[in-house]
Structure formats: structure tokens, C-alpha cells
Amino acid sequence: MSVETERLRSLVATELNRARDRTVLLTEAVDEEDLIRQHSPLMSPLVWDLAHVGNQEELWLVRDVGGREPVRHDIDELYDAFKHPRRDRPQLPLLGPAEARRYVATVRDKVLDVLDHSRLDGTPLVEHGFAFGMIVQHEQQHDETMLATHQLRAGAPVLQAPPPPGAAVPVGGEVLIPGGAFTMGTSTEPWALDNERPAHRVDVATFFMDRAPVTNGQYAAFLDAGGYDDPRWWSPAGWRHRQTAGLSAPQHWQRDGDEWAYTRFGRISRIIPDEPVVHVCFYEAEAYAAWAGKRLPTEAEWEKAARFDPATGRSRRFPWGDEPPTADHANLGQRHLRPAAAGAYPAGASPSGVHQLVGDVWEWTSSDFLGYPGFVAFPYSEYSEVFFGPEYKVLRGGSFGTDAAACRGTFRNWDYPIRRQIFSGFRCARDA
Question: Among 48, 227, 235, 312, who pairs with 44 as Cys (CB 3.0-4.6 Å)?
């Protein structure tokens, strides 16, 4: 076995264990009653997420990669996300907390044995450990979903984390991103998912991009100016949703005298003006941008601002370069339980001087979720292809709840434009 294969095997094991440590933290922070309760019809019970990550791990790594006998073939349908909407999952005969924990532990033991005996090459599914990396990302994505469930949970706080750093440099205004072609997407990132592929050239016209995400203070000015009551700033679909849903402020905001307060994981505090606004839907972001005389960036504009290096003409893996993110680059991985102040991560800025493009908040773009030219579904169409179309809008960049394993300059997230239980914010752009 080559040194490179052993190094990859060690990396995979580390990432699998790191994801599982986070899953354990999120599921053991609450009692069994909270674990089986549905805290919002938009979310699964936490115990469903727990068994689901184990079931996906079994399907892909134990059965497909390892060729082993099923651990629990009788539960596949229960944990098929396409067969049961989230609102219906509490009525299913789900595994209880103790049984779910035993199941995922058994699956993991078998997966580590499969890893020990896998060559990690030979077919696209295992080349460079892809299937293992896909499962790592899947679990980390569900960990972020479980973190969002914790935010919706009522009751005493159960999660703890230190506060994020404050602003290290002043960041405001906008930067000019010169027009021209750049390479969007990737054909070389070993664990990139199918919707990030293939790399292709995209020509983007010159535009201005905000240097930082829109902050609480900036968004509060929109609120105080009556932005939610003025249909001029809203698209027809956005205004209909604002009225139907009764939107009056970002989710989890409430008045505290003349100020605004925010509920974060069971704790109420005044909003921090220089932190990026979070828990806004696409329509709210679109309305703010119109009020500010700007617009939301397209997905291609966002990626060019994040990845293109004008000095070399190439696209980087991350805004700061090709090396993986550290605590100096970005607010990722649930290290903190809220966005960091604008200007908190100068080491993570892009060559164009755009800050915090990775971490803190998912950023809405104006683009529909579609496949790139030459897209090929892999390893199954249900990961991306079934979601392509105008019903979903693309979000980029990751949030404070996104793990580094599931976030890079090419990574694409998507959701309905009405969703705001996710850790979503935005920044603005405008034509040059």
C-alpha cells in the first residue's frame, strides 16, 4: 500500500470521526423527549437525522463500497428522505434513541473495517476516497440541519460556544470586480459533488460587490424605514409571500423597546449591529437590495468575487488561496454559535478585497439552481438533478454551522426562496 493511500485512509478516518463527534454532541445535548420531538414541521426529529446518517453510511459504504451484508435492510424506506416529507416523519415507526445509537455505532464499526480494506482507487465511486468523502459531507450537512433544529427548539439553552471574534479591520462599501472570463466550478477537487462539476469558462460583466455581508445594523435601517410595508421594494412573488406569511422582521427578531433583540439557541440578547444578518429568506434579501439601490449577485458573480485571482488569472479553491480553512480564515464548523462581526477575518479576504465569503452566513444569490454545461449526475440523480429548476435559489459560502469538509469555493447550496430557518444572509451587488 502506498504512502499516499495510507495518508488518504488516515484523512478519511479522521473526517468520519470528526463528523460523528459533532453528531453525538448535537444529539446528546438534549434529553430523549427532545430527541424524538418535532420542533418544527420544517425539520425532522433529531432522532430521525441520527439514524438517517447511519443508514446512508450503510447503503453507500457498507453495502456498495464494501459489498457487505446489510445491517438493517428493514429500515431503508423509513430513512429515505424522498419517501417521507419532514412533517410526516414523527408518525413513522422510527428507531428509538438507544436503538438508533446502537445502529449507527454498528454501521461505523463496519465502515472503518471497509476503509481498512479498500484500495481507494479503481472506480469513480472510490477514487480518492470519494464515497467516503461524500458520506462525511452528508453527515456534516445533517449536523448543520440539526443545529438549525436546535435554533428552533424551545426550552433552556443546551449548546455552548465561545463568542466569535470582533472586527479586526474596518470593512465597508464595495469593490469593483472587473469583467471577463473565469473558470467556474471544478473538475479536479476530489470530493466535489456532482453539481459543482465540470469546470467551465464563464464571462461576467464588470460589477460592484459589497465587501461584507449585510449587517444587522444595516438591515435594521431597512426595517425602521418601513421596508416591510412598502411593496415598491418587493418582487410580486416576494410581496405575496410577505403578506401571506406575515413577515415583519428576520426570523427570531423581536422588539426590545426601541431596539431589536434576537433569540439565539434559547438565549435572548440585543442584536449586534456589525454582525451579518441571519435567518432572512430570499425575498427579504431581494427587497433589502432593491431598497439600497442594488441587487443580489448572480451565482457566477459571487464565485468570481470569491475565487478569481487577477494576478494569476486562475480560480482558487478558497478566497484566500488553496489551503484548507483555519480559524484565522473563516467562521465555520459550529466553533461559534453566531456570525462574526464584519471585518473579523482579514486573512480570509479574496484577492479583490471581498471579506467573509466563506462561513458566517449562507448568501442568497439571484440564480436558480441548475446544472452546469456538461453536468453528469453522480453517483445518483437524487443528490442534485431532481432539484434543478426555478423553484430553488442558490446560496453560496457556508455559515457558522457549516463544516469545512462541506464548504469550498465551488460548493453550492440551494433552497426554496421562502426558507429562513437556515443560517441564511446575503450581500449586495450592482452593475458597474
Answer: 48
